[in-house]
Amino acid sequence: MSVCTICEGTGLVRALDAQKNWVSRACTCQAAERERRRITAARIPIRYKDCTLDTFEIYHEADRSLSDALTTARRFVEEYPVGTAGKGLLFVGSMGVGKTHLAVGVLQRLVRERGVKGLFCDYRELLKNIQNSYNPEVKTTELELLQPVFAAEVLVLDDLGAQKPNEWVQDTVALILNTRYNDRQTTIITTNYADLPAAAGALSDPERAAREPSLGDRIGDRMLSRLAEMCIRIRMSGKDCRQTGIKRARFG
After folding, report:
1. If phi over 0 gives left and psi between -120 and 50 gives alpha, with beta otherwise, what is residue 131?
2. Backbone angles phi, psi at 67, to 5 degrees
3. CB-hemisphere CA count at 13 Å for 171?
4. What is the C-alpha separation between 92 and 152, in angstroms, rounded?
5. How many Cα atoms occupy the beta-carbon half-sphere of 223 within 13 Å?
6. What is the pLDDT of residues 125-153, one digit of tens each?
7. Sorting pLDDT into bands at 50, 70 and 90, what band is 250?
8. Helix, strand, or coil here: 239?
9. Beta bridge partners of residue 134, listed in sequence order
10. Annotated domain spans of the chain
11. What CATH topology corresponds to 38-244?
């Protein structure tokens, strides 16, 4: 790391106060270093490090929902935390429309401009790590893995519902969401599944198989209802930028 040319690595600079007395003050490099540490602690994957609200590009003839989503994301940052009152965001849409880009963009801006302690968490990776913690040879416990998730002032939970549902998965999701809901912690979620209830029991097996799974199918209707209380829903529609070659995020 290069040494600051202003304070020469001391972290302090001499300046005159209002009474014309020389005093020591923290160098601006200290604020930059604290910001760097907060970003590192947020564990944003390298792939998404350049995803900001300013680099979210609305391509020609894009669906109106994409520009509306960007507007809502910007407004959320401006109003946080008083205007958001503990609520988060739920980005819903098909693959490649930019949900993760906007979620990370909100997280980055809150970390950099508001000084929040944030955390990016991949849903499948988290569940896999928790399951692995049950191995007696693994030293990390479930509680140690979940503590940062519970404690984060702003949590991005990416790709909710991607893991095949079972009772353990749904119980774990319920623990995470209910804990953060009760503590009024801000949770930003992305999902590829429509935020609709689970398939009705009256459906036949062929009808159920032909039906596209919903978020209710993946996490349970009780948690789907909880999300309606926790988050502002943002639906996004459009082409899959990964498949069509449309430039969405500048990954460097």
Report:
1. alpha
2. -70, -35
3. 5
4. 22
5. 25
6. 999 999 999 988 888 889 999 999 999 99
7. very low
8. coil
9. none
10. 38-244
11. Rossmann fold (3.40.50)
